[in-house]
Structures are given as C-alpha cells and as structure tokens.
Amino acid sequence: MSHSVPSAAAAFDLAALKRALEQSDADSLLALYDEDAEMEIIDRNRPPSAPLRLVGRPAIAAFWRDVCARDMTHAVGEAVSDAHRAAFVERCAYPDGCHVVSAMTLELRDGRIRRHLTVQAWDEVSCG
pTM for the complete prediction? Predict the structure, then answer.
C-alpha cells in the first residue's frame, strides 16, 4: 500500500519577478499572475477612494506592457516572500530626472500572484 504525501503549494519565484521588473520584461511578469488576478494602484492621481483597479491577466498585461515600454530604469529591493505573500519596493528613474518609488504587496496562490497592491509616490517637481 502506498501513501501519498500532499504536495506543498508551489513556491513563488521572487527572483524571477525582480529580474523581469529590472529588465522591463512584460511577458515574464505576466507569467507570474493568475488568470483572474487583481491589481490595485494608489498614487497622487488615484487616491484610496478611487484607485486604479485591473481585473484579469489581459488588463494587467496592458498595464505592464505600457510600463515596460517606457524609457526608465527599475530597481527592486527590500523583497520578502513566503508561500502566501510577497512584498518589495521598486525604485524607478526616468531620463529627465523624475523618480518614482512603489511599495508593492502580493497575495499569492499556488505560486502565482492573485492580488497585487501598489502604493506609489512620484517626484512632484520633475514629473509631469
């Protein structure tokens, strides 16, 4: 008689997320999301009472394709994760001197992003 051991939940690949963001690789980013994932973004133009909400991989794909097509650099740091959650800070810089800092938290399911929250701040002086 054989006994099967339940398999552990799939691990989230935080290194792949960091690499994809820093290389502006939208396709690799999208592969980390569930089909029915949700993303919420809060910033100076989208306050907590009216955040940007994206539902489903196609909507999230359009967002990441736009971001990854921009002339800017991305650096990921302060990254932590376990089987259910991940969090990190992304620091971005545009050639004109505009800087953006985003704090992101991810809710994970079976090694994929289920819910994504971004709270970001932009330089007020140099960013249009």
Answer: 0.86
